[in-house]
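Hi, here's the filled form for the chain we discussed.

Project: internal
Contact: R.S.
Residues: 104
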Amino acid sequence: METISKETLQSEPINAAFAITGSAGFKSSNIEQMAYDDKLQKLYIEFKSGGVYEYNNVNKSVWQGLKRAESKGHYFYVNIRNYPNVYPYRKLSEFPKTDRTFYQ
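And the returned structure, exactly as it came back:
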């Protein structure tokens, strides 16, 4: 798992198709905010504990399931986090800037 610097994030813009913020879009005891890049199939999650991660190979149906889940944290751990070989991840230094934010 590699850590990405703020400078790298700024040089690689995120073209997020959707973004949801935890404070306005949903309530979760574990997840602060999350965003999904439809084109690159990447999921970005900031946890309330402070960690920010990028998960790769996340298809749109998994993203939609996460958005619809009553418990976002439970869905994440059961369907994404438990499969690091399917959804490789890396730690980021901060949550990426996104084009659009919904549910605000």
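Let me know if anything looks off before we file it.
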